[in-house]
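Appendix B, Record 12. Input sequence as logged:
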Amino acid sequence: MIRSFISIDIPDELKKEVKALQELFRKCGADVRWVRTEAMHFTLKFLGDVEEKQIEQIKKILKDIALHTPLITIKLNGAGVFPNQKIPRVIWIGIKDEDGALDDLQKRIDAELSKLGFEKEERNFKPHLTLGRMRSQKGREALIKLIEEVKDKKLGAFTVADIKLMKSELRPEGSVYTELARFEFSG
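Logged structural output:
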């Protein structure tokens, strides 16, 4: 079984902006396990444990979807937490998809992969870039105060030109991601 997901990478120049914001949050001393810069991406669909024989079927579907997808411009904008500020678990940066192209891409991936038996996502798609996960509520108030100060901060925009099928290995030092395949958009 291969633990896998479908994602979009963040360009290195934007990762620097994200890392600077992460460093600001880190200073408040909250008990957070921060995502390593090199591991930053945003997930379009988490597949979970996939049988090796299904990987080729998934690749075929993703290749076809990518061939029918134009370039997508998205913006990194604002910060927040899931599920809420009283009990934050995930600290994130928001992703603005003004023309809905990213949402459309996610829905097509979800629909096509459901034909292979993958469950459709029941929650509304909320594209975000995870910065960290709370380990405890220590430092919560200071962290929430900082997040409120930057909740509308614009970090930059970029053009999405491909999607990736990724392998995820859980290790004590954190997840390790390996690219299984990349699918370029038609442009």
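Residues 2-184 form a domain with the Cyclic Phosphodiesterase; Chain: A, fold (CATH 3.90.1140.10).
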